[in-house]
């Protein structure tokens, strides 16, 4: 490809709309252009990267026995109503009507339609297992699309669904996908961790996320510092080492204490001169089922995913100020568990273990001293509902947990019979008995993987692509386009690399060398071959490695071999 024929409009200034590094660089390097909030056009350079990621995915899916198909983007509402998710999925579901006033949805995911397909085609154990996948656009009406390709309303995703006879065979399919995902992200040149995660709206039991490690990642990952322990978890899923023993401190009588204007944990601890570990933080939530009071220690934060799961609810949000006063009789900041009526109280195990604790008195400007769970109030449920923090013990081996930030690029789920039962996807076993098909679901964000690769691989000058997914592997730059000999040699180098099977751009633009060098760094070509006076005088070229900045002098005779050897390690 000659640069004069390539649509790669680079920008010198950072667009105002861009927030994270990948968004800025994808816009500046000419990979994407915004159509509307959360929706982008993929320019030719982006499409080359996407095609490479897709190729790697297809090879690993096929290696494990996956079969590719293509499911409809437009899905009938009847299927979603049958599964119960038409109302549950919420406002993120793009809904539309046809000319006959029938309801449809743009597919954010494809559990319903793939299950409906299989129930119509599979009826015997002899037809199982099956692994079916597609790579397709997905649509989710994000409340706040942001971070470019990280959280958009239209994006490209690979989703595979496995269909098995039982849990034992599901485990086999699950491990096949675990291996395939590991190979995919390794082949994409990414540093990643596999972590335990929450299944969210898709449901199911076991699930793992594949996290690309990057400082800009939205997700917090906790992993064990002991290299012999493989524990790693999304912070939303991370388990605490439960505290069940109460101290032997003598129980003291309840005492009301005036705490004027002390609403926050910090204000109360400063005023009373106590540790936040002695405070019972009392938070009211509204779910789709009920109002609930969550109790955690003052030095902790509620994990709303854990709380949602403990309640078996679909929706959860902090109660408003009016609701807080209506339930407790006090303004926010002075709520406490003692004396509350008509609400469910869920306490973290650390709260249940407290002695002579402090919390709001359900009266403005007053706190209660010497609260003892079990004596002064009853708890409806005691379970882990807090965020685990770095430095705490690993729940598997007891070593220290370490924190990192990550970008989720893939997730695998054991769905079990969640969808097959409600959508009536059954098979007959050897004895003729009808049983629900056991399913798994496995997704990779293709466009998100492209963005995550940039978040992990960049510097102040631009993108640093891993060679396996770079749009082009090499750019050839003549220093002086007015020097015919340099241009001719650059043309020769270009042709030789094309014949050798190297993906190469010949920057034949009538621009200064400095402009071309800046564009080469911005776009992120793994290797830059400079054709200057050495190429003319001594038949040598300069090969610059984008990742390290190292410059290698290579003879024209060994050019192809030198380039190929360098690319292997990039």
Question: What is this entry, summarized?
Answer:
The chain is of the alpha+beta class and 570 residues long. It is 28% helix and 28% strand. The radius of gyration is 29 Å and the shape is globular.
Topology:
Blueprint: H1 21-28, E1 32-36, E2 39-42, H2 44-63, E3 67-68, E4 74-76, H3 77-83, H4 85-88, E5 95-97, E6 103-106, H5 111-121, E7 130-139, E8 154-164, H6 167-187, E9 192-196, E10 207-213, E11 219-224, E12 232-234, E13 255-258, H7 265-272, E14 280-287, E15 291-297, H8 304-311, E16 316-318, H9 321-328, E17 344-347, H10 349-352, E18 357-363, E19 366-371, E20 381-382, E21 401-416, H11 418-422, E22 426-428, E23 434-436, E24 438-445, H12 446-456, E25 458-459, E26 462-463, E27 474-478, H13 484-499, E28 504-506, H14 513-523, E29 527-531, H15 533-537, E30 540-545, E31 551-555, H16 559-568
Parallel strand pairs: 3-7, 15-17, 17-20, 27-28, 27-29
Antiparallel strand pairs: 1-2, 4-6, 5-6, 7-8, 8-24, 9-10, 10-21, 11-12, 11-21, 13-19, 14-15, 14-16, 18-19, 21-24, 22-23, 25-26, 29-30, 30-31
Helix pairs in contact: 1-12, 2-6, 2-12
Give descriptors for this structure.
9-stranded mixed beta sheet, YbaK protein, BirA Bifunctional Protein, domain 2, 570 residues, 5-stranded mixed beta sheet, alpha+beta, Rossmann fold, 28% helix
Structure write-up:
- This protein has three domains: 16-72 and 109-239 and 402-455, Bira Bifunctional Protein, Domain 2 (BirA Bifunctional Protein, domain 2), CATH 3.30.930.10; 255-382, Alpha-Beta Complex (YbaK protein); 472-568, Rossmann fold (3-Layer(aba) Sandwich), CATH 3.40.50.800.
- The model has no long low-confidence stretch (mean pLDDT 93).
- Strands 3, 7, 8, 9, 10, 11, 12, 21 and 24 form a nine-stranded mixed sheet that branches. A five-stranded mixed sheet has the order 16-14-15-17-20.
- The longest helix is centred in the first third of the chain and has 21 residues, at 167-187.
- The chain is of the alpha+beta class and 570 residues long.
- The chain is globular.
């Amino acid at each position: 490809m000659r640069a004069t024929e390539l649509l790669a409009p680079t920008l010198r200034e950072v667009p105002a709309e861009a927030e994270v590094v990948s968004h800025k660089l994808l816009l500046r390097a000419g990979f994407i252009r915004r159509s509307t909030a959360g929706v982008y056009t993929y320019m030719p350079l982006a499409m080359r990267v996407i095609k490479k990621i897709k190729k790697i995915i297809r090879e690993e899916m096929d290696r494990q026995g996956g079969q590719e198909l293509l499911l409809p983007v437009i899905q009938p509402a009847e299927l979603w109503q049958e599964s119960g998710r038409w109302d549950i999925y919420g406002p993120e579901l793009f809904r539309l009507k046809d000319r006959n006033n029938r309801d449809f949805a743009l597919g954010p995911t494809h559990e319903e339609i793939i299950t409906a397909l299989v129930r119509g085609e599979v009826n015997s154990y002899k037809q199982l297992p099956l692994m079916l996948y597609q790579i397709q656009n997905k649509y989710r009406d994000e409340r706040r699309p942001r971070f470019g390709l990280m959280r958009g309303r239209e994006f490209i995703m690979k989703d595979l669904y496995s269909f098995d006879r039982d849990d034992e065979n599901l485990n086999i399919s699950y491990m096949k996908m675990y291996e395939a995902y590991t190979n995919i992200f390794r082949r994409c040149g990414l540093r990643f961790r596999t972590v335990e995660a929450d299944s969210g709206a898709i449901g199911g039991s076991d699930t793992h996320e594949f996290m690309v490690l990057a400082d800009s990642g939205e997700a917090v990952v906790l992993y064990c510092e002991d290299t012999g322990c493989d524990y790693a978890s999304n912070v939303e899923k991370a388990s605490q080492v439960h505290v069940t023993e109460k101290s032997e401190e003598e129980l003291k009588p309840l005492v009301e204490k005036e705490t004027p204007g002390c609403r926050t944990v910090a204000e109360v601890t400063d005023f009373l001169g106590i540790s936040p570990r002695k405070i019972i933080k009392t938070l009211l939530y509204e779910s789709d089922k009920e109002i609930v009071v969550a109790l955690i220690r003052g030095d902790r934060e509620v994990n709303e995913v854990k709380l949602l799961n403990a309640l078996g609810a679909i929706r959860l949000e902090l109660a408003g100020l009016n609701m807080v006063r209506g339930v407790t009789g006090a303004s926010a900041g002075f709520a406490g568990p003692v004396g509350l009526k008509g609400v469910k109280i869920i306490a973290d195990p650390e709260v249940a273990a407290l002695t002579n604790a402090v919390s709001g008195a359900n009266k403005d400007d007053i706190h209660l001293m010497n609260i003892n769970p079990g004596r002064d109030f009853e708890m409806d449920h005691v379970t882990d509902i807090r965020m685990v923090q770095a430095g705490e013990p690993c729940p598997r081996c007891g070593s220290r947990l370490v924190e990192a930030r990550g970008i989720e690029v893939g997730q695998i789920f054991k769905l079990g019979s969640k969808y097959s039962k409600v959508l009536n996807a059954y098979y007959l076993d050897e004895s003729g008995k009808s049983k629900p098909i056991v399913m798994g679901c496995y997704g990779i964000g293709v466009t998100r993987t492209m963005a995550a690769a940039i978040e992990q691989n960049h510097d102040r000058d631009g993108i640093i692509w891993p060679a396996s997914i770079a749009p082009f592997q090499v750019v050839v730059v003549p220093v002086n386009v007015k020097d015919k000999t340099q241009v001719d040699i650059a043309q020769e180098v270009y042709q030789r690399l094309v014949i050798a099977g190297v993906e190469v751009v010949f920057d034949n633009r009538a621009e200064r060398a400095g402009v071309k060098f800046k564009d080469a760094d911005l776009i992120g070509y793994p290797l830059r071959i400079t054709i200057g006076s050495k190429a003319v005088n001594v038949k040598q070229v300069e090969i610059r490695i984008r990742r390290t900045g190292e410059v290698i002098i290579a003879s024209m005779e060994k050019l192809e071999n030198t380039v190929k050897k360098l690319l292997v390690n990039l």
